[in-house]
Amino acid sequence: ELIVLLHTHTHLGQAATHTHTWTGNFSHTDTRHKQWTHTCHLVPVPPTSPAPPAQSPPFMSCPHSPLQVQSELVYLSPHDLVKAFPVLGTPCYSDQREVVIRGCLAPGHYIIIPSTSLPNQEGEFILRVLTEEGGRVAPADKANTDLRNQLPSPSGSVLPSLKDAQQLFKKHSNTEGRCAAGELQRLLKEAVQGGVLARSEDEFCMERCKSFLALMDTKGFGKLEWVDFEPQWEKIRKWTDIFMAFDTNRSCSLEYAEIIPALQAAGLRLDDFVLQLVGLRFSDASMAFSFPAFLHLLLKLETMIAKFRSFDMLGNGTVTLNYRQWLHMTIYN
Question: Within 225-322, where are the H helices?
């Protein structure tokens, strides 16, 4: 599914003379969103499958359903989708290459959702909007919530300093000076106890801490020494500063709309499909990201990007992995 937000100001007319086209990918389970400002009079909406190459599979069944939403709503959660009812739409899935709807819509904000009939099915589509004379359609700029210039300095971090973190590490490590997943979990929980992030303590579950350890463990020992943990703690403090800057209501979580500028502040720019996967993997049922989930996400992204670059010796954006290398990268992380 590709969700497109359209904004209409007047009722639809009769003759459509202007065409506005968008292309993208969609699937049955895709929940990513895009915003568009739509100031036109007529909104027939035909999503189409592009012409297939030779010997390609048949066209996928794909209807589309415009939904009217509140003006401030930029993302539909699963709960919203259950309650929403299409104001226009096709009665069933169609195998036709082109699906066309013509109708009248009252002024308001609308989200158009193309989808496929089968789960986990992906494909390309073209979405055209035809408007009457005088109508215009232009992409809306994403909300500017980039707060990089307002990030607190490291000295104002809510987490213990590097020196204090070293004492915590010694406290929770074994006699050999190493921390396994259980020790790492106790360390992280104590680090947030009594502070503004205390509500996040329970989110440091054992499974998440096992993943933390695997992502930090460059030697493959299953345990961390201080020399392994020290540079990671500096990153965690920096990422915590970013999290606190975007968690303006101090809920110890980031909304889905806040995660994009937060990732940008951390130096990461992801395409819409990867962002959709990020939401499915790291957010909760309300599409919010807890503090531990945010740390987990950034640590995962940074580690996987570093691993990719280590294999991309020519710097051309492609890598070749053997079977063992692939298993090591995907299982132990």
Answer: 226-246, 256-265, 272-282, 291-311
Query: 72-88 pLDDT, tens per residue?
Result: 555 566 667 777 777 77
d(CA 100, CA 119): 23
Distance of alpha carbon 263 from alpha carbon 294, whole angstroms: 9
| Run of H or E residues at 254 | strand 253-254
pTM score: 0.62
Calpha distance 119→283 (Å, rounded): 21
Identify the pLDDT of residue 31. 39
Per-residue pLDDT, averaged over 47-60, amounts to 43
End-to-end CA distance of the chain: 29
pLDDT at 122 over 90: no
Rg, C-alpha atoms of the chain: 24
Over 90: is that where the pLDDT of 151 sits?
no
* DSSP calls for 32-95: -EEEEEEE-S-----EEPPPPPTTPPPPPP--EEEEEE-TT-----HHHHHH---SS--SS---
Burial of 305 (0-12, 13-18, 19+ CB in 10 A): exposed
User: What does the DSSP assignment read for 109-161?
Assistant: EEEEEE--SSTT-EEEEEEEEEE-TT-EEEEPPPP----GGGPPPGGG-SSPP
Residue 295's closest CA among 256, 241, 225? 241
